[in-house]
Specification:
Elements lengths: L1 E7 L2 E7 L5 E2 L6 E3 L37 H16 L3 H13 L2 E3 L5 E3 L5
Antiparallel strand pairs: 1-2, 3-4, 5-6
The protein binds zinc ion.
């Protein structure tokens, strides 16, 4: 995965692109977008992932009443619900763990989503 740095109103974040050119959902890690969810200046694509997150809507308190301030804070908010729904089935859980690797995240023992340790 190739990291792409983005910046939106002072908030810096990373989008991941695979070798074949597709982009990962920054919430769930699904590799399913032909255009980046956000461009380098942080402008959202307004596409919706199968996890239900719509870039530019679910991350904007001006658009969604459930959104909080900060793009990444909304990714975390959404991801938490997605993890809670996935733990009910071993298949969904395995898919979730695989997808989170795409965006350099893993599940800790208590199902908190944390960054992967740096591999040296
Ligand atoms: Zn997603």
């Amino acid at each position: 995965m190739k990291p792409i740095r983005c910046e939106a109103s002072g908030e810096a974040f990373t989008i991941y692109q695979s070798e074949d050119g597709s982009y990962c959902c920054p919430v769930c890690g699904a590799l399913e977008f032909s255009i980046p969810p956000y461009d380098s200046e942080g402008r959202p694509s307004f596409e919706m992932c199968h996890c239900g997150f719509e870039f530019g809507y679910d991350d904007s308190p001006l658009a969604s009443k459930d959104a909080v301030v900060g793009i990444q804070a909304n990714w975390s908010r959404w991801r938490r619900g997605w993890v809670e729904r996935a733990v009910v089935s071993p298949e969904a859980f395995a898919t979730l763990e695989g997808q989170l690797k795409n965006i350099r995240l893993r599940l800790a023992f208590d199902l908190l989503v944390v960054p992967e340790e740096n591999e040296t």
